[in-house]
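Sync notes, pocket subgroup
Present: LS, DG
LS reminded everyone that the earlier model was apo-only. Rerun requested with magnesium ion included. Inputs:
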Amino acid sequence: MASGPPFRSGYVAIIGRPNVGKSTLLNSILGEKVAIVTPRPQTTRNRIVGVKTLPHAQIIFLDTPGFHHPRERLGDYMLRTARESLREVDLILFMVEPRSPGEIEREIIRELTGVCRKQDAGSRPVLLLINKIDRIKKGNILPLIGEYAGLMDFDEIIPVSALMGDGIGELLETIIRYLPEGPQYYPPDIYTDQLERFLVAEIIREQVMLLTSDEIPYSVAVETVSWEEKEGLVIIGAEIYVEKESQKGIIIGKRGKMLKEIGTRSRREIESILNSRVFLELWVKVKENWRKRISALRELGYQ
Ligand SMILES: Nc1nc2c(ncn2[C@@H]2O[C@H](COP(=O)(O)OP(=O)(O)OP(=O)(O)O)[C@@H](O)[C@H]2O)c(=O)[nH]1
Ligand SMILES: [Mg+2]
């Protein structure tokens, strides 16, 4: 039997400041929606696993919450989640905006230097991804690469556009080159480990984040509370939690208009993901200051 190249596999964390396009990249690589995306920072709150299986390799991506300076307990949880992923992986993708490094980028680089460049911590490759290159002039890319190269010895610096899919094929090949030889951890048809119930709650939260403004997008948590399949119909119940009575009024809207809109848009997307007709029922509830309370965060799965 002819032996091909060795099978390579490993875990890859995608990190960076909020809103740089980490979740967009993951969805684009998988060709499936596993992580919600909005134009607002701090969209992702949990670690999201996405598995890419190729004939000669399997890459397990960990999408993480953006690095930021937390103001409440939810933020502490998000930052911890991002940090912990750094220590668990074989390779790190550090994604940045196509502009000069800011304070957050410098902080992340300090953290990466500690985790990945110290002898005793084992040296892990770090690839810098300059994302959103569709937004800048070609001539501005090289100077940016120079600026970042001066801050850390990245193993590679790769300009990409997660949104347009530019540079993604090359990125995958580069990642694979750096991965160790290893087994196929997941069956080839599995592309995430998250439960449908979680994804449904996230899709509803995405719609709330897209349709509301100010503090509301950040004050909302969603939980799928019931799931029943009956005669070709999936009947799903979900609760939307807010922090104050006044926010509840805004989510419901005049004569229930806003909640109806959230429900219709979410249902359409859930139907296309589940490939089935869906009946979606939503309730809005107040959970006082849930972002600040450990017990409430636990209940909502942010633990
Ligand atoms: N123009 C452009 N926009 C992009 C690109 N990648 C992502 N975006 C947009 O950037 C915004 C944020 O994208 P996300 O994927 O949610 O960013 P994120 O890094 O996961 O954000 P958090 O979850 O908040 O940390 C969205 O509006 C995306 O459409 C890109 O390559 N080009
Ligand atoms: Mg995200």
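DG: The mean pLDDT is 95.
LS: The chain has two domains: 8-178, 196-299.
Action: DG to write up.
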